[in-house]
Amino acid sequence: MASVAFLGLGVMGYPMAGHLAKAGHSVKVYNRTRSKSVAWASEFQGISGANPEETVAGAEIVFMCVGNDDDVRAVGLPALSAMSPQALFVDHTTASPSVARELEAVGAQRGIAVLDAPVSGGQAGAVNGALTIMVGGSQAAFDRGSPVMSAYGKTIVRIGDAGSGQLAKAMNQIAIAGVVQGLAEALHFGQQAGVDIEKAIAAISQGAAGSWQMNNRWQTMNDGKFDFGFAVEWMRKDLGIVLDEARENGASLPLTAIVDQFYAEIIRDGGRRLDTSSLIKRLQRNRD
Questions:
Q1: Same-domain status, 174 and 56
Q2: What is the pLDDT of residues 96-150, one digit of tens each?
Q3: Residues 66 and 177 grouped into a single domain
Q4: CATH number (domain holding residue 202)
Q5: Domain range spanning residue 97?
Q6: Catalytic residue among 169, 199, 225, 281
Q7: What sign does the CA torsion over 273, 182, 165, 17 have?
Q8: Is 169 among the catalytic positions?
Q9: pTM of the full predicted structure?
């Protein structure tokens, strides 16, 4: 059991920190909206910190899950400045590889190991303790942190050195963008053709076309329900990171760039908080 801190109690961080407490770790939490950290502390018999520095003081491992690069710096850098030497810092935010390397360099100056460890599996994965965690950083830091992360991680893989966890998460988002757009077009095509969608999905989901997205989203997409899951505005943030990195490394991502613009259209239509499967709405709107 470890003395840990968790910074950021959004839809992912709140249940992740809860799993750490349920596993028997001593957990102190911080959230910029203080009422949320107070509520978490009451629910899980933990401690609510007033700021990052106070929250991480004395912690053996500090976990963080915030929104973007700016948030990572605003919360993570003060935390690193107050952590004990030889402690471990694990950032679960989906952020840029460059900010991951920046944190790792800052940590190294103070003898603090840093892991970039973005997650996949959505809110349901966080609630169920079944996330996939892609990790960048040293093997020694990974060996130290992965047993604790297993409280909410089902699959935990060290990809390579600092920043490589974020690069793997970028690959994850590229693949998802293409799959969701393909599923949206397949459903739209079937609807237009008058196909029995339920029977068609029962058939094609068992073959090469099958995917997590198809198994978990076809019904709600077909029913026009998008008020859950991973929000469009979050996906656009992630795809922005992907496309920025592609410009740096020379990767050609034509499909990703197109889907990013499709999501921009959905946001312009007021759908920023809709689930990413709302890509089908754009096709139906264009049809109408």
A1: no
A2: 999 999 999 999 999 999 999 999 999 999 999 999 999 999 999 999 999 999 9
A3: no
A4: 1.10.1040.10
A5: 3-160
A6: 169
A7: positive
A8: yes
A9: 0.94
